[in-house]
Write a structure and sequence with these properties.
The protein is mainly alpha-helical. The protein is built from five helices and no strands. The protein is about 85% helix and about 0% strand.
Length: about 170
């Protein structure tokens, strides 16, 4: 299982790095052709928007795994040790529920886009494909927040059991 997770992590990082690099290269090329050759590609702005959405959701999924999303920890800091983990676990589970809700509604929206057959204006890409990263990475973030939340709760329970064992 760890090998599969490691492989998925490597794929995520690979896609993120190469997507950012590709966006930067396309941007440089667009500026060069616009101001140097007096020619502009009409589809680049649209592609750039779609890639930025992909980068944002992919990066957010990686941030959920590494625990780098910002948080307000004033209340967590004043609680006693096992309750800190319980509150962080509850926060992880609530965050997970939120992203599963986003996944549900994005699934409904993508299905609607698929049925309508809508396409993008300049590139002609089916719009349901454009919205797929929102669904995929919302599920990824939901799973990762759920795993993190359960991990905090398990850590709190293990801490209570060790403390109870020392008191006997």
């Amino acid at each position: 299982m760890q090998k599969i997770i490691h492989t998925i992590d490597r794929i995520e990082h690979f896609v993120l790095v190469w997507t950012i690099l590709g966006l930067a290269l396309f941007g440089f090329f667009q500026v060069f052709t616009r101001y140097g050759l007096n020619y502009s590609f009409s589809w680049f702005e649209e592609l750039g928007r779609y890639l930025v959405v992909l980068i944002a959701f992919l990066g957010a999924g990686i941030g959920a795994k590494k625990g780098t999303h910002f948080s307000m920890d004033l209340i967590v800091g004043i609680l006693a040790q096992p309750y800190q983990q319980y509150l962080q676990g509850l926060t992880g589970i609530i965050s997970s529920a939120f992203f599963f809700l986003v996944s549900f509604y994005s699934w409904k929206f993508i299905a609607r886009m698929y049925n309508f057959g809508a396409t993008s204006s300049t590139m002609g890409i089916r719009m349901y494909i454009v919205y797929l990263p929102i669904l995929v990475f919302s599920v990824v973030m939901g799973v990762r927040f759920l795993i993190t939340g359960i991990g905090f709760i398990k850590k709190a329970r293990d801490g209570k059991e060790k403390a109870a064992g020392k008191g006997v």
